[in-house]
Write a structure and sequence with these properties.
Layout: H1 12-18, H2 22-30, H3 46-53, H4 57-72, E1 75-76, H5 78-83, E2 89-92, H6 96-101, E3 108-109, H7 112-120, E4 127-130, H8 137-146, E5 152-155, H9 158-165
């Protein structure tokens, strides 16, 4: 699905899948989706959410699409990252168990100490953050950029895309939640 194909009748689950930063964007502007009183389900359409929240659906959809354009500048495709790997500091945002089991060679596990080092260091350091699938990395990229680290990017598709597109020797895996 392409962002332009989304409409008022699109379920929120599809919107969140198509626009990875949508949850952050809709919460930041409209305070929707961040707590139990303003939560939405994946099956609820954008029109239904807007109707019960008394906000114009066209305005919300335009905001989500504009936010997606902004977010797109924070992504780095696996092929681009591979080409530029020598100039990037790779930071793994996943759980320690995931990092110990499967890792992109040369990457560092994200800790509080590493965060302090990065934020106290050169703000022009080129940083590539990654998670498992790329679904959650944009919030961290925005956070790094908000702290002056403007050359921070998120790996589009996460380590899973890296495994499929760049280094097939890195095992793919599925995250299961209880």
């Amino acid at each position: 699905m392409q962002p332009a194909d989304l409409s008022a009748d699109s379920p929120m689950g599809l919107i969140l899948e198509t626009l990875p930063g949508a949850k952050r964007a809709i919460f930041a502007r409209y305070h929707l989706g961040g707590c139990q009183s303003c939560a939405f389900s994946n099956d609820e359409t954008l029109a239904e959410l807007c109707a019960r929240s008394e906000i114009p659906v066209d305005e919300v959809l335009a905001h989500l699409l504009a936010s997606h354009v902004h977010d797109s500048a924070m992504w780095m495709e696996p092929s681009v990252a591979h080409e530029q790997i020598s100039g990037l500091r790779l930071i793994d945002l996943r759980m320690r168990e995931e990092h110990e089991a499967v890792v992109i060679p040369g990457s560092e596990f994200f800790t509080q100490e590493l965060q302090q080092q990065l934020f106290a260091g050169d703000p022009n350091t080129r940083i590539l953050l990654y998670d498992h699938s790329g679904r959650n990395v944009l919030d961290q990229v925005a956070w790094f950029r908000g702290h002056g680290m403007n050359e921070t990017y998120g790996l589009l598709g996460g380590i899973d895309a890296w495994s499929r597109e760049i280094d097939k020797s890195i095992p793919r895996y599925r995250v299961e939640m209880d």
